[in-house]
Amino acid sequence: MDFVLKLHKYKLEPELEAEPCMALPEHQDLSFITIINQNQVNGLEIKTRDGDWIAFDDASPSSLVVMACDGLQVWSNDRIEACKHRVIMSGSKVRYSCLVICL
C-alpha cells in the first residue's frame, strides 16, 4: 500500500471573514482512506445519509479523523460508503490540515 502526505492551507480573504464561506465544496476522496488532523481551527463538515451536515468541532490536538474513500467503497462492494465532506470557514484564523492518504 502506498501513502501520500498532503498539507492544506485555507485562508479567507479579509472581506469574507465575517460570514461563513465555502473553502472546499462537497466531495469524496478518490483514495482508499484519508486520515485528517486539524490545527484547532474548525471547518470540517461531514454529510450524513439523511443529507444533514455535522461539524467536526472541538477536537483535541491529538484527534484524527479517519474517512472511508471511493477505493474502500469499491473494495467493500458498497458495504462501506465513501464519506462526503466539505470545509466551511469563518473568521480570520488560517486553517491547516494534514492528510495521510492511503492509496
From TrEMBL:
<dbReference type="Pfam" id="PF03171">
    <property type="entry name" value="2OG-FeII_Oxy"/>
</dbReference>
<dbReference type="InterPro" id="IPR027443">
    <property type="entry name" value="IPNS-like_sf"/>
</dbReference>
<keyword id="KW-0223">Dioxygenase</keyword>
<protein>
    <submittedName>
        <fullName>Oxoglutarate/iron-dependent dioxygenase</fullName>
    </submittedName>
</protein>
<dbReference type="InterPro" id="IPR050231">
    <property type="entry name" value="Iron_ascorbate_oxido_reductase"/>
</dbReference>
<feature type="domain" description="Isopenicillin N synthase-like Fe(2+) 2OG dioxygenase">
    <location>
        <begin position="13"/>
        <end position="98"/>
    </location>
</feature>
<dbReference type="GO" id="GO:0051213">
    <property type="term" value="F:dioxygenase activity"/>
</dbReference>
<keyword id="KW-0560">Oxidoreductase</keyword>
<dbReference type="InterPro" id="IPR044861">
    <property type="entry name" value="IPNS-like_FE2OG_OXY"/>
</dbReference>
